[in-house]
Amino acid sequence: MSTESKECCPPPAAPEEVSGAEVFDADQLAAYAKALGHPARVAIMRLLMEKNACICGEIVDELPLAQSTVSQHLKQLKAAGLIRGEVDGPRVCYCVEPAAVARFRALVDLFVSPGSPSNEEAQ
User: Fold this and answer.
1) Does residue 6 form part of some domain?
2) How far apart are the C-alpha atoms of 100 and 116, rounded to whole Å?
3) Fewer beta carbons within 10 angstroms: which end of the chain, N or C?
4) What pLDDT, on a 0 to 100 scale, did the predictor assign at position 55?
5) Would 99 be classed as within a structural domain?
6) Is 2 domain-assigned?
């Protein structure tokens, strides 16, 4: 199976700069954290980010998990908006959602910088 880039996976965008106007969103951070709250989902995200392309069947080949287990983890990552899935014939191809990863990174930065003006406004 090929890992070449397909339509559903444009190259990842550069991480967005957090502007002073950006507000900390605890609910969104918690949703991302929950989606990444299992080592298998972290491994899937890392695999997708390393490949930087749509992956259709290789996820199961790369991880020591059953197809059904991988499918459940992919479903949770997709529901959180961290990945996209596109039907390609009889299979679904997955890739990272670059905007969501950039948003997660920005939220973590705001979380670990509690003295920022944006955090004080959200409390």
Assistant:
1) no
2) 22
3) C
4) 84
5) yes
6) no
